[in-house]
Automatic annotation (TrEMBL):
Signal peptide: 1-23
Keywords recorded for this protein, A-Z: 4Fe-4S, Disulfide bond, Iron, Iron-sulfur, Metal-binding, Oxidoreductase, Signal
EC code: 1.8.7.2
Record organism: Monodopsis sp. MarTras21
Enzyme superclass (EC): oxidoreductase
Enzymatic reactions: [thioredoxin]-disulfide + 2 reduced [2Fe-2S]-[ferredoxin] + 2 H(+) = [thioredoxin]-dithiol + 2 oxidized [2Fe-2S]-[ferredoxin]
Protein name, per record: ferredoxin:thioredoxin reductase
Length: 176
């Protein structure tokens, strides 16, 4: 190997060393380094227990959209019942918890076009909807049957009930 060939060889070995040892590949101009999972939520969500599903002062809606329009509410009720069936999950033994969550989903569907999980706090609900990670059924539910709202409970859950149907009167009783 002559000197003319040695210099490019050494340069390429040096570049390889930098890449392997430091794990660093400079981003192309204008290209940003990844900030994690592409579908990760834009804000760090904060768990809100179903019993505390309340409207914030900044989003007091009209009476019509307060708990989802009648059609949306019915659609969410049917969705929840069907989803229980196909995933072998059940509503909580306290059906009012399921009813509260379903009403929260319907409200988000009416206001943002998708049933964003109602049991979390979001900095920007519209942005979260577009990411779709927390659109019901959320990714944790679809991947691991984990529903922190306690809407869909597996048979081994200590709070599980026996119902896969959500009665209209229970739905009508709860307020969100
Ligand atoms: S499945 Fe996910 S999005 Fe739907 S209610 Fe449960 S936790 Fe919320």
């Amino acid at each position: 190997m002559n000197v003319d060939m040695l210099i490019p060889k050494l340069l390429s070995l040096l570049l390889l060393w930098v890449t392997i040892v430091r794990g660093f590949i400079p981003p192309a101009p204008g290209q940003q380094k990844s900030q994690g999972h592409p579908k990760a939520p834009v804000s760090r969500p904060v768990l809100v227990p179903p019993s505390e599903l309340v409207l914030s002062a900044t989003e007091v809606p009209s009476e019509a959209s307060k708990a989802g329009s009648a059609g949306t509410l019915k659609a969410m009720q049917k969705f929840a019942e069907k989803y229980c069936e196909i995933t072998d999950t059940y509503f909580c033994s306290d059906l009012e918890i399921a009813a509260t969550v379903v009403k929260g989903l319907a409200k988000h569907k009416d206001e943002y076009g998708a049933p964003l999980c109602p049991c979390r706090h979001y900095e920007d609900k519209a942005a979260e909807v577009s990411i779709a990670y927390w659109n019901c059924p959320c990714v944790p539910m679809r991947e691991r049957k984990e529903c922190h709202c306690m809407l869909f409970l597996t048979p081994d859950n200590p709070f599980v009930g026996k119902e896969q149907k959500l009665p209209d009167d229970v739905l009508a009783k709860v307020q969100v």
